[in-house]
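Bumping with the actual sequence this time:
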Amino acid sequence: MTYGRLAWRLARIKARCPAAVLAAILANDTGYYEKRVYVEEAKRCGVTVLAPCIHRSGMEFRSERIGAGRDGIRAGFREVRDLPSDFVEHFLHERDERGPYFSVEEFTRRVEEHGMTITERWVEHLILVGAFDLLEGTRPEKLWRYRIHAGRKRRIGPEEYAARRRPGAALFADALLEREPILPCLPEFDARERARLEQELLGFTTGLHVLEMDDLPDDFDSQDCIPLADLPARVGQDVRILGFLAAQRRTRTKNGRLMCFLTLEDRDGIAEVVLFPDAYERFGHELAGQDRYVVRGRVVQEDGALTVTAASVARVE
């Protein structure tokens, strides 16, 4: 079967079932780009991307029905930074065997009952990416409450702490140590902070695009930057675009000079940018890995492929 036929079939299925196709690509690491690029493509297709959930997620990405005939993509726990696979397998098995978790404290207690030693950072990362959002309280409240209990456990020791948490044990325990703290009502993280934490701990964002996370520098004028989705209407024109670097590939011309192909993406689309040798020699030093870049160039369409021939490239600090 030719690559063309495979691509056509995949595009047809993706048009009908975008959540299922993109979830399968993400779960199996079969894509050319980083996962963040496929997550953004899902958003552009109208698919809701959901954070890991302690009640609904598995190890991998999966599609999930979210009502009214709509499907979303649920991130798996494998995507959460620093989570060991045996820890994830342990609490997923515990959930399947004994039912859902009703608090962060119950989650840690049930996992530790079977001999698993939990590192506090693992639980904090789960809280920060929204894995416990179905439970009562905001993420800051859950984080504060967990840190209080974790600190108490460190002071008196895991065995003594477990003994004092058994029903009826509080009647004989030190009242000061066993008194539950009164937590203030802490507001939820705003959209930018949630996106920043997701980018740091998951490698992608479920809400804001990475270009929307931070303010652009005061001296940067984005007024004449066009959305990447508008490029097909600008063939033959000089344009200025702003995008996040999704991929880059260097190659050599027949006479041995280096040139470079870039893939930029924004919340509206993806664009292929070509730096021919002269442009690459002048601006190649600007390409410092994943970041925001502004490109000036001409939109060219050749053999059905749309590219931007770069005249200049600048990294947006």
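The tokens above came from a reply further down the thread. The chain has two domains: 3-201, 228-316.
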